[in-house]
Prior knowledge:
Peroxidase, domain 1; alpha+beta; single chain; 8 helices; four-stranded mixed β-sheet; elongated
Amino acid sequence: xxxxxxxxxxxxxxxxxxxxxxxxxxxxxxxxxxxxxxxxxxxxxxxxxxxxxxxxxxxxxxxxxxxxxxxxxxxxxxxxxxxxxxxxxxxxxxxxxxxxxxxxxxxxxxxxxxxxxxxxxxxxxxxxxxxxxxxxxxxxxxxxxxxxxxxxxxxxxxxxxxxxxxxxxxxxxxxxxxxxxxx
Length: 183
């Protein structure tokens, strides 16, 4: 099991190296899209995640799968970076490296990540309203929304931006009302 400190210590330099490559080739946004796609693929495929994390699988096999996933049309710099991670036996840190790269990209673009939890899926209008509210609060240039659905909220939303949490859910309002009534 990897500790979070160890993960950050390994992921940070690799993410910074990937950002340096992306900036030198003017491919920061393209790498960002590819990173999001890879993270989504890893999140939705436990089998792929286990394959990449397994230290007993031969590096050549991992390289073959990565080359298949990336395809011929993928950026050669990113593909070579992933193959280098296999060679350096750091491919198990792929997810935190990509997440750290996206954090660096958000920092570069003055974008904030807002994690939004709602009782039901949000409409595009609701997402836009939340984005505008977060921009007003944070003075960021852009907002990247990461939405989750939690049926236990009953209604409303919980918005988390960095360490700031805005609880506008019915469950939160009921909890605050209960605390006021009991005191």
